Amino acid sequence: MVRRAMGSRSTDRGAVRGARRPEVRLPALEAWAGDGLEPDGDYDGLEFRGLDLAGQDGAGARFMDCALTGCVLDETGLGRARVLDSVLTGLRGVGTQLAESTFRDVELVDARLGGTQLHGAVLERVVVRGGKIDFLNLREARLTDVVFESCVLVEPDFAGARLERVEFTDCALTGADFGNATLKDVDLRGAAPLEITRGLDRLSGAVISTGQLLDLAPVLAAELGIRVE
Which PANTHER family match (predicted)? Predict the structure, then answer.
């Protein structure tokens, strides 16, 4: 597998430093022929296509140079898993357990997920493109060089997370919680709508547009105790 990370696009993003995107080039893959995921399993150069992995336990597993396409992940246990240099397409699932997992050089495309547990996870050079993710739990997670692109995020929880070089591009971000989060070079200008319910005081290190500032003004005023009449 040959992979190169694309450089920062800070020159066309103003003062904010752009995220480094992954370029994942998968080798020839073999179809996975196993009966079920295994805790601490080692999966290398495999294709998982159209599989129902609901309720299975793959905690601590490692996926390297893999493609997961059209798989069902309802309540699948993947805590502390490592997903490296892989492409995940059309995943479906509710309550997928990915706490303290690692995603590095990964593309997540057209996912339909709900209540995904990624608290304490590490995401580095990850692109989330298309699809819809409801109630994404990223509490205390670390996101570096992550792009949310053309997707819908409903009530994502970034409380206590650290975000560095994170971009929201042509995506909807509603009901977001940034309480106690730390932001550095976070570009929110491409989020429409942009709705933040908690943590407006933590947006130092982020950039928003003038229009977004006006939209957030009532919530910001309320948080600062300003009465507008």
Answer: BTB_POZ DOMAIN-CONTAINING PROTEIN KCTD9
Preceding peptide of 218 cis, ω within 30°: no
Q: In this structure, are residues 81 and 61 in contact, taking their beta carbons and an 8 Å threshold?
A: yes
Q: Global pTM?
A: 0.90
CA distance 220 to 111: 32
Task: Name the token pair of 131.
Answer: 């699809």
**95 touches 74 (CB < 8 A):** yes
CA-based nearest residue to 114, from 84, 147, 152, 170: 152
- In terms of Cα–Cα distance, which of 83, 55, 64 is closest to 26? 64
Task: Compute the distance between CA of residue 194 and CA of residue 107 in angstroms, rounded to an integer.
Answer: 23
Phi first, then psi, for residue 168 (nearest 5°) are -115, 110
Residue 2 reports pLDDT greater than 70: no
Query: Is the Cβ–Cβ distance between 58 and 35 less than 8 Å?
Result: no
Mean pLDDT of 27-32: 97
Q: CA-CA distance, 37 to 72, in Å (whole number)?
A: 13
Lowest mean pLDDT among 80-84, 150-154, 185-189, 196-200: 196-200
